[in-house]
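Ticket #4471: structure output looks truncated?

Reporter: J.K.
Steps to reproduce: submitted the chain below (112 residues) through the standard prediction queue, then opened the result file.
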Amino acid sequence: MRTPDVEVLWWDGCPSTERALDELGAVLRELGLVDAQVRMREITTDADAERVGFLGSPTILIDGRDIAPAASNDTAALSCRVYRRRDGRISPTPDPEDLKDVLRRAAAQEVS
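Returned output as attached by the reporter:
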């Protein structure tokens, strides 16, 4: 099992970052990915948001890919992000089950 690259993009104006980090850490531990280093990248300007395709805070990238890819009407902006949980609820953080699925697939990939 390989250790995926994990990065959290965040904006200081959104209060959900700590919750997202706590939930991400719990999933990493549950999957046995304790060696994964979570890198943090603060997005501070609209230009930065546009350049990296930042859809709001928090955005979690696994191996450089957003765990919740953009819908056609999503736009880059300094804002808080909204996720839809598997049970249909709206949440400021991704569904832990979605995190698990993405991390499992990433960990199972062959190292090239």
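Triage note (M.O.): checked the attachment and the full token line is present. The chain has a mean pLDDT of 92.
Status: closed, working as intended.
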